[in-house]
């Protein structure tokens, strides 16, 4: 049985601050199929914090 995390999902602004990149860059990456995965909830994007951190760590090991 899968248990959903009750941790708050990150907004584009939250991810922008965490990664140190402009919000516009996150939208551009999304259009290019790059960057951490996001889910669209209505007109809003939400990110799973664990996936953002995992994506960031993967970038560190890839460079």
Automatic annotation (TrEMBL):
<dbReference type="InterPro" id="IPR009061">
    <property type="entry name" value="DNA-bd_dom_put_sf"/>
</dbReference>
<keyword id="KW-0238">DNA-binding</keyword>
<dbReference type="InterPro" id="IPR036388">
    <property type="entry name" value="WH-like_DNA-bd_sf"/>
</dbReference>
<protein>
    <submittedName>
        <fullName>DNA-binding protein</fullName>
    </submittedName>
</protein>
<dbReference type="InterPro" id="IPR041657">
    <property type="entry name" value="HTH_17"/>
</dbReference>
<dbReference type="Pfam" id="PF12728">
    <property type="entry name" value="HTH_17"/>
</dbReference>
<feature type="domain" description="Helix-turn-helix">
    <location>
        <begin position="11"/>
        <end position="59"/>
    </location>
</feature>
<dbReference type="GO" id="GO:0003677">
    <property type="term" value="F:DNA binding"/>
</dbReference>
């Amino acid at each position: 049985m899968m248990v959903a995390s009750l941790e708050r999902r990150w907004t584009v602004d939250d991810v922008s601050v965490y990664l140190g990149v402009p919000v516009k860059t996150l939208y551009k990456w999304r259009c290019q199929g790059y960057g951490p995965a996001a889910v669209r909830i209505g007109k809003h994007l939400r990110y799973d914090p664990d996936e953002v951190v995992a994506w960031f760590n993967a970038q560190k090991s890839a460079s």
